[in-house]
Amino acid sequence: MYYIADTDKSFAQASTDLDAAVRHHGFGVLHIHELGNTLRNKGVAFEEECNIFEVCNPLQAAKVLSTDMRLNMALPCRISVYTEKGKTRIGMIRPVPMLLALSDDEALTRVAQEVEEKIIQMIDEAK
User: Fold this and answer.
1) Largest CB tally within 10 Å, which of 5, 12, 87, 110?
2) CA 51/CA 37 separation, integer angstroms
3) Beta-carbon contacts of residue 125 (< 8 Å; ≥ 6 apart)
4) Whether the bond into 76 is cis, omega within 30 of 0
5) What is the pLDDT of residue 100?
6) Greatest CA separation for the chain
7) What gap in Å lies between CA 8 and CA 61, rounded to an integer?
8) Is CATH 3.40.50.300 what the domain over 2-126 is classified as, yes or no?
9) pLDDT tens across 63-102, in order?
10) Can you give the pLDDT at residue 99?
């Protein structure tokens, strides 16, 4: 269900390297949610760091949406760079199992497999 890679890089360096890897693989970064900072700014005592990257490949997204518009609720894909007990990690929820829970369309499964493979490459490149 998850793909998570540990890295010896700092949180900041892993975030920078993930941003570059996403772009290198033909995806765009739509937004980065700085969740750790957001929680602290709201007065929540939160020690960890967490950046959630919303990423998208327009061609793949169009394939999904033209087949089943309801799947807009599952887009864009998210990749997180976060710390956990002093360790920096990069991870995602795998698109294939998520999509299989929402649709039995074989064409969509192929799209999800292609996207998942690319995101794994991005994570591995950034780690």
Assistant:
1) 5
2) 9
3) 17, 21, 24, 25
4) yes
5) 83
6) 46
7) 32
8) no
9) 999 999 999 999 999 999 999 999 999 999 999 988 888 8
10) 83
